[in-house]
Amino acid sequence: MTIMSAHAPELEAELATLRERAQLIRLSAVSCLGDAADQAERVHLEWEAEQIDRRVARLRDRLDAPPPAGTSPADGTARLGSIVQVEFADEGVGRFQLGEIADLAGIVSAVTPASPLGASLLGARAGDTVTYAAPRGRVSALVTAVS
């Protein structure tokens, strides 16, 4: 999945924050000299910095990847990366981005394509009514916008 260009500024800001955090963690790890407890803390900090580096690499790959053919938001069909606004009969309005949770943190509410709601939104267009199974029974929602 590629990241829609509308989200690139938020993700670039997240990348900068993650890089700064990794640098601070590495500086803290260098100062952990001494007894076994200090060494354990150093190992933990190095592991945490590696996790951040992996997240940065995944985001960078996604930001740098060209969008797949036919995924223009102008065509109005909900695909991976789309933000879909829906109106629930009894719960108001919700905005969801279709994608993997790990890649969407902090942008909008995320919904995976494997979830019942996410599966029902894939391929939907504004004006469509989608229905999916929820713990409390079948739920319908009107798709009001796709971007």
CATH class of the largest domain: Alpha Beta
Overall tally of domains: 2
Helix content: 40-55%
Order of helices and strands: HHEEHEHEE
Q: Sketch the major β-sheet.
A: 5 strands, mixed
Instruction: Give the amount of beta strand, in percent.
Output: 15-25%
Radius of gyration: 20 Å
The name of the CATH topology of the largest domain is: Chitinase A, domain 3
- Please tally the β strands and state the result: 5
Average pLDDT taken over every residue: 79
CATH hierarchy: architecture of the largest domain: Roll
Structural class: alpha+beta
CATH superfamily of the largest domain: Transcription elongation factor, GreA/GreB, C-terminal domain
* Low-confidence spans: none
Q: How is this structure best described in words?
A:
With 147 residues, the chain is α+β, with helices and mostly antiparallel strands. It folds into two domains: 5-64; 73-146, Transcription elongation factor, GreA/GreB, C-terminal domain (Chitinase A, domain 3, Roll). The protein has four helices and five strands. Strands 3-2-1-5-4 form a five-stranded mixed beta sheet. Helix 3 (101-104) links the parallel strand 2 and strand 3. The radius of gyration is 20 Å and the shape is elongated.
